[in-house]
């Protein structure tokens, strides 16, 4: 009888330990995510419409999508606003350079990689900006590549705009997303030429758009991630076009600019076209 009681007690202890580990991971460990915000001038930071403090600041946040707003204290610049999709146990980075007319910024965040290797996706505005990684040209935005885990420097440049660079820390099993928004270089003076000169500059290339095709319902759902089971962010109508950001590995989903943020639409009912 005593042996049976000891066995039952042992089983209960094991069950409690397993349950404790599950609860620890679900409700404690996954809540150690942060958003780090820096700006060129002193600014107030709001997350989901709640004041969090002044820049520079590192905010502890829950995972998932949050709305970030940064307002320069000088009140002479347009506020910066964006959506941040925070992945568990990561720190998203937001750097803002306030300027008259249009602000410059870069945003770095993480999500699940659709391969076993750590992916890096780089999107820049203007589209087709030249992208350098660790000093080597890797193409024109949007760029998707595989990098080794660890620190890397990403730079975006476009003729007539101020260059931007950011250091990222690539993590195994995750996809690192880098979003650049370049500001116009007010000191830039185009060089006149009597005759056309061949150039490798991407200025004349057309930007890409995603066109929504016919669907059985007359509309197409926009998802948070490239999956039909992902959270629905809204709907787009047949025939509409949206700025193209990137596609997943098998081109079955396309990422678009949507409601001042981004979302994914099924490649079955959309196609990438030149603007």
Total beta strand runs: 22
The major beta sheet can be summarized as: 7 strands, mixed
Termini, distance in Å?
80 Å
Average pLDDT taken over every residue: 84
Helix-strand pattern, N to C? HEEEEEEEEEEEEEEEEEEEEEE
Global morphology: globular
Query: How many separate domains make up the residues?
Result: 2
Strand ordering within the main sheet: 4-1-7-8-15-9-12
Structural class: mainly beta
Q: How would you characterize this protein structure?
A:
The protein has two domains: 32-181, no CATH class; 208-274, Roll (SH3 type barrels). Helices cover 9% and strands 50% of the residues. The longest helix is centred in the N-terminal third of the chain and has 26 residues, at 2-27. The chain has a seven-stranded mixed sheet, with no helix packed on it. The chain has a five-stranded antiparallel sheet with strand order 21-20-19-16-22, with no helix packed on it. The chain contains one helix and 22 strands. Residues 199-205 have low confidence and may be disordered. It is mostly beta strands and 275 residues long.
Detail the topology: elements first, then pairings:
Layout: H1 2-27, E1 33-39, E2 43-47, E3 50-54, E4 57-61, E5 64-72, E6 80-86, E7 91-97, E8 104-112, E9 119-125, E10 130-133, E11 136-140, E12 143-146, E13 150-157, E14 164-170, E15 174-181, E16 208-212, E17 219-223, E18 232-237, E19 241-247, E20 253-258, E21 261-266, E22 270-274
Parallel strand pairs: 1-7, 9-15
Antiparallel strand pairs: 1-4, 2-3, 2-5, 5-6, 7-8, 8-15, 9-12, 10-11, 10-13, 13-14, 16-19, 16-22, 17-18, 19-20, 20-21
